[in-house]
Structure formats: C-alpha cells, structure tokens
Amino acid sequence: MFDIGWQELFIVAVIALIVVGPKDLPQAIRAITTWIRKAKMMTREFQAGVNEMVREAELDGIKETLTKPQDVKQSIVDIVDPDGELQKGMSLSEDDLKADPKPEIDEPMTIGEAIDAGIVRPEADSEADDSGMAVKRKPKPTPAPKPRAKPKPRAKPKTKTDTPA
User: Fold this and answer.
1) In a domain, 90, yes or no
2) How far apart are CA 135 and CA 128, in angstroms?
3) Dihedral of alpha carbons 59, 61, 63, 66, sign
4) Of 98, 101, 124, 122, which Cα lies nearest the Cα of 111?
5) For residue range 98-108, what is the model confidence (pLDDT) as tens digits?
6) Tally of structural domains, the chain
7) Is residue 70 part of a domain?
8) Do 114 and 120 touch, CB atoms closer than 8 A?
9) Residue 117: inside a domain, yes or no?
10) Predicted confidence (pLDDT) per residue in 90-142, tens digit
11) Least confident of 6-10, 14-18, 89-93, 116-120
12) Position 87 in a domain
C-alpha cells in the first residue's frame, strides 16, 4: 500500500520512542490504532454506499428495459425481418382467401395406373393382381439355425494329493 519496508518501520519506531518516550508510548500506539480503525470503517461504509448506488442504477436500467414490451417486440421484428420481405410473403391477399381451398379431383387412380404414370414404383417382392392392387408375396422361409457345438469339458483342478511327492 505505502510500500514501507522493515528498515523504514524501524526508523519510525526509534523516532517515536525518542519523541514520545518509553512511558507514554503504549498509549500513543493505542490512539494511533484507534484512528486507523475508524478510517478503515469509514472507507468500508463509503465503498458500500457507492456499491449500493451502482446496484440501484443497474436495476433501474434493467427494469426500464423489461417494462417496454413494445420496444422488445419491434427489436425482434427488426432483427428477424429487417426489410419486411418475410411479412409480405406470409400475408394473404383477398384473392387468395376467395379461392377454393379444395382442388378438383378426377376419379381416383388404381395402383397399376400410378405405376404406369411413374407416380409409384412397384416393390421388388410384390406383383399386381387383377384389380391393379399390389399383393405381397409370402416371405421366403428362413433356414433353420445350425446346431451349436458341445462345450469342451474343463480340466480338473489339481489338488495337493495329485502332485508327486
């Protein structure tokens, strides 16, 4: 803080001993430490007051931004669609609303006609019947699983009696 080393402290202590005297030195040290404590307490209170003012100012700023939802909505719209093209593309005109939403459908197609038109691809394992509907073939039987080999017998553990003496 003050960058005072041991040498400087020793010189101050010797001068204080000479000026104040050995008899009144303990009382002088107590008075000085009391003043230092008071100064530290005042700086802590001042710092706490400044921190509280800063915190209140930040809270006021946050509260102000949160109480303006119109500004937030407009800022989101500006970010997402700055030139308004997206909104124009999404809006419907009166002609669009008057148009019939259901398209006209002729007679339904059979599967055979859809295959001929290239709309539907036939499956490899199906064939068409008389009505033009695809019929699934029966699945091919799966081969029977191979029998498992018998496990090999384990070797017997050697006991002390089996070992040669």
Assistant:
1) no
2) 6
3) negative
4) 122
5) 665 555 666 77
6) 1
7) yes
8) yes
9) no
10) 776 666 666 655 556 667 777 778 788 777 777 655 555 545 454 555 566 77
11) 89-93
12) no
